[in-house]
Write a structure and sequence with these properties.
Two copies of one chain form a homodimer. In chain A, the strands form two sheets. Chain A has a seven-stranded mixed sheet. In chain A, strands 1-2 form a two-stranded antiparallel sheet. In chain A, helix 8 links the parallel strand 7 and strand 8. Chain A has nine helices and nine strands. Chain A folds into two domains: 71 residues, Winged helix-like DNA-binding domain superfamily/Winged helix DNA-binding domain (Arc Repressor Mutant, subunit A); 112 residues, 3-Layer(aba) Sandwich (Rossmann fold). With 212 residues, chain A is of the alpha/beta class. At the A-B interface, helix 1, helix 5, strand 8 and helix 9 of A face helix 1, helix 5, strand 8 and helix 9 of B. Chain A binds a DNA duplex (30 and 30 nucleotides) through helix 3.
Chain lengths: 212, 212
Amino acid sequence: MKSEHIPKATIERLAVYLQILGNLGRDGVNIISSDKLAQACKVNPSQIRKDLAYFGEFGVRGVGYYIQELITAIKQSLGIDRHWYCALVGVGNLGRALLRHNEFARRGFIIRGAFDCDQDKIGKVESGLEVICSKRLKTKVRDLGLEIGIITTPPERAQRAADYLVESGIKGIINFAPARIAVPEPIPVEYVDYFHQFYALAFHITLSQHRA
Amino acid sequence: MKSEHIPKATIERLAVYLQILGNLGRDGVNIISSDKLAQACKVNPSQIRKDLAYFGEFGVRGVGYYIQELITAIKQSLGIDRHWYCALVGVGNLGRALLRHNEFARRGFIIRGAFDCDQDKIGKVESGLEVICSKRLKTKVRDLGLEIGIITTPPERAQRAADYLVESGIKGIINFAPARIAVPEPIPVEYVDYFHQFYALAFHITLSQHRA
DNA sequence: TTGATTTTGTTACTTTTTTCACAAATCAGC
DNA sequence: GCTGATTTGTGAAAAAAGTAACAAAATCAA
């Protein structure tokens, strides 16, 4: 099998597989079967084989998957076998926290530009990056080769940030602001709000208590 | 309709509806139809009606939904029409960032205990909370009425943190550590890792470039 | 080399989720 | 109070995702 439409859930699971394979690899394991990996991820083994089948044949029948090879294959499939340069728009509390968070670079997402439209912030230096006026995004995106935009503005300014980013030729957007944004069709947007998971947890706890 | 099994995707969408309704409410809108809300969320209007139908009848035929009422109804459905007291385990960089992040309290998730097993950290004060030895979780969970555990340890210590939390009688866990954890059946766990969204974005960008 | 055993890749089947379509309810104007 | 215009709630249909089952490939022992 190869390509066609790939379910969103598959992409999410690939990220999980990657996480677990990484931990296993660090523990010195070399080979794993879909069955064992499935146990570790708490999914169905067929599910794993099917998810991987969208991208190619990475296993060896009768043997299983070579962990390092599989990690490489999944990274390639997701497009994270390379660096991505990012623009961060909105240098507030959250923005600053992300700029300081060096996990970004470790995972291959390198924030190379920090932008804000507040005159008081422009010119200041945050984690080694000078804060630049959002209106200058276009030039910077071109000059620095930025491909991903990270929105960390307050919700009411998220749409404007998105507009600047789109206009500047950015290729995709991660929106941390608690607001939906509208962008032209081809540009993918992902929303991040970990309170959604808190809500889901509150729901599940409440549900099980209601049953009891 | 009422209760039965509710899709995970429905819960996620309810959180999105809530976000958008909140923003609309602040803008002074009072009533909205499933059609308009659907446009704002970029989902199918039937989807919205069906999602809500799992929990009750909140709309008025021929009219639409009263926004404030709907917000209340969704919050009740999710179980976030109340406060939740939380225990945070693992006072590293991420843990400290979350402790400082006052959005938690604003959204009704109040972190009332900070725990770590590192002797150097125990006794120190972070954002007004004294860091307590993880082994004392049980007493504190009882005395402070903590219901949700937030794991922010390094991945290799996530399972132990989970074990302490489960033993202490916690009702649910949010795991920020990049590792899967095993807990007894009835206790719900939600995983938070925003790099998954970065991966999804990288994938979509790569895909569309491949097509071009 | 053959046969037993393992485990993948893939097709067929099952279940779940989403979308469609329409009756039931509401409201405004006459 | 009736008529027409809306818009919900919901059962039926369609689409999508997940699971099971098995042939094909690989390994190993005899």
